[in-house]
Specification:
Number of domains: 2
Order of helices and strands: EHEHHHHHHH
Shape: elongated
Number of strands: 2
CATH architecture of the largest domain: Orthogonal Bundle
CATH class of the largest domain: Mainly Alpha
Length: 147
């Protein structure tokens, strides 16, 4: 059983909004938590609050294709795991040592992978704008089941 909970509003006219938030929490719960028994509150969705509110899911698909798809395609064609490497890099706070340990690779291997990611995505450097776009694209990939 999955349960999505919307926010509390003290105005009856906002009941539809709370219902929609509960629906969004339920969608995220099912997609990201593998259908396990969960209760997820809309306030706990983080960036998914914004992503689930986009009316046109095609916009999410386009953003994903423009940002992360080339890396995903490279992984598929070359049997690499660069998308996961990038994901773990963000999860580990962009700390190379911690990321390398989590991926069970040497730090130099991780540095090589990060450079390959930049090459494949035509990124000169991991600027804040680039990192933000990639992070959002990873979250979109989760929502769209692109992994």
């Amino acid at each position: 059983v999955n349960i999505g909970i919307g926010r509390y509003y003290d105005n009856i006219t906002k009941i539809q909004k709370s219902y929609n938030e509960a629906q969004n929490a339920l969608i995220v719960s099912k997609k990201l938590l593998n259908g396990e028994n969960t209760v997820l509150h809309f306030d706990d969705l983080g960036i998914y609050k914004l992503l689930t509110k986009l009316e046109d899911k095609e916009d999410l698909e386009i953003f994903y294709k423009e940002t992360l798809y080339p890396l995903s395609k490279y992984d598929e064609e070359n049997r690499t795991d660069l998308v996961r490497t990038l994901q773990e890099y963000f999860v580990c706070g962009e700390n190379l040592t911690v990321t390398a340990k989590k991926l069970y690779v040497h730090v130099n291997t991780l540095k090589y992978r990060m450079n390959r990611i930049k090459e494949i995505l035509y990124i000169d450097d991991f600027t804040m704008e680039n990192k933000t776009s990639l992070y959002i694209a990873l979250k979109i990939a989760d929502l769209l089941d692109k992994k």
